[in-house]
Amino acid sequence: MTKRMNPIVDFVFKRIFGTEENKDLLLSFLNATLKPEEGKELKEIILVDPHINADQVGDKASILDVRAKTKTGEQINIEVQLHNKYDMEKRSLYYWAKMYEGQLAEGEPYRNLKKTVTIRIIDFEYLPTENYHSVFRLREDEKGFVLTDDLEIHFLELPKVSGVHQETSDMLVKWMLFFKAESKKKLEELAMSEPTIRKAVNVLEFLSQDAEARRLYELREKALKDELNMIKGAKAEGERQKAIKMALNMLADGEPIGKIARYTELSPDEIQKLKQQLH
User: Fold this and answer.
1) Is 261 exposed, middle or buried (0-12, 13-18, 19+ CB in 10 A)?
2) What angle do the packed helices 184-193 and 171-180 form, to 10 degrees?
3) Residue 210 near residue 12, CB atoms below 8 Å
4) Statement: residue 139 has pLDDT above 60
5) I need a labelling partner for 94 at 20 to 30 A (CA). Which of 18, 114, 121, 255 fits?
6) How many Å apart are CA 24 and CA 44, to the nearest integer?
7) Rounded to whole angstroms, how far apart are CA atoms 194 and 172?
8) Which residues contact 119 (CB under 8 A, 6 or more apart)?
9) Residue 166 pLDDT > 80, yes or no?
10) Are 118 and 154 in contact (CB under 8 A)?
11) Does residue 1 register a pLDDT over 70?
12) 150 and 141 in contact (C-beta within 8 Å)?
């Protein structure tokens, strides 16, 4: 039996939510996430760059996100992440700023800038809250009023939805459970409860059985793993350099090698070599 693809590998997510034939799925997810007032639900959406090039799939630096805009010009970006790439808040703000600034041609007035929304779906816990859905806006500290609603950043933390009562009518919870795709049984239950999720499950099953989609999926998985290994390697090297700096400072203060090894987790042999370099 062919293994089901993970819907939050960005290649798969974009194939499910970022194509013209599946815009109804995207609208359902956006209305569940943005929670507009009754009567103001999104009914139309325009996809920006819905295409996936084979070169992008194998490039670990490429971002296969879903970008869209409403009929009034509001910008929306959705990105999924399997692993913590660190500096998430700065990364999110940076991509929001690029989208916001990118709306204006040279000489256009600032009043033409439209609201820009970033949605991050992450498969790890990140924020210091039990909430699975966190929303950030520009608010005044004391009175709490919003300076402008042009900035809106959402975080959906998939591990945190496990603690939510899952027999719910909340459409966002259902979509998050679909993204987790824990079992075939769970997906079937979700498909029975909502027609849009039934269609998403069918698209996921079709992709999982399609030979070319499977090839690109595996290529993308490899690229994402390579990127993660690079990040982990860089982080490990950074920690090692901090340990070496601490060891050198402790050696300069005349601390014994055993104590330095306990504090830095460097081996006694490594510390002895540093001591020789120091002298």
Assistant:
1) middle
2) 150
3) no
4) yes
5) 18
6) 9
7) 12
8) 33, 76, 77, 78, 79, 153, 154, 156
9) no
10) yes
11) no
12) no
Residue 228 class from Cβ within 10 Å (0-12 exposed, 13-18 middle, 19+ buried)? Answer: middle
Flag whether pLDDT at 273 surpasses 70.
yes
User: What's the distance, CA 168 to chain centroid?
Assistant: 25
With b meaning 16 or more CB within 10 Å and e meaning fewer, what string describes 229-241? eeeeeeeeeeeee
Q: What's the pTM?
A: 0.82
State the sign of the Cα–Cα–Cα–Cα dihedral 194, 197, 198, 199. positive
User: SS3 for the chain, per residue?
Assistant: CCCCCCCCCHHHHHHHHCCHHHHHHHHHHHHHHHCCCCCCCCCCCEEECCCCCHHHHCCCCCCCCEEEECCCCCEEEEEEECCCCCCHHHHHHHHHHHHHHCCCCCCCCHHHCCCEEEEEEECCCCCCCCCCEEEEEEECCCCCCEEEEEEEEEEEEHHHHHHCCCCCCCHHHHHHHHHHCCCHHHHHHHHHHCHHHHHHHHHHHHHHHCHHHHHHHHHHHHHHHHHHHHHHHHHHHHHHHHHHHHHHHHHHCCCCHHHHHHHHCCCHHHHHHHHHHHC
* Dist CA 117 CA 149 (whole Å): 10
Q: Which residues of 65-104 are buried (b: 16+ CB within 10 A; e: fewer)?
A: bbbbbbeeebbbbbbbbbeeeeebeeebeebbeebbeeee
Distance of CA 7 to the CA centre of its chain: 13
- At 260, the pLDDT band (50, 70, 90 cuts) reads confident
The C-alpha atoms of residue 207 and residue 221 are separated, in whole angstroms, by 15
| Predicted pLDDT at 245 | 87
For the record, the structure tokens of 110 come out as 């600032």
**Any idea which residue has 């109804």 for tokens?**
24
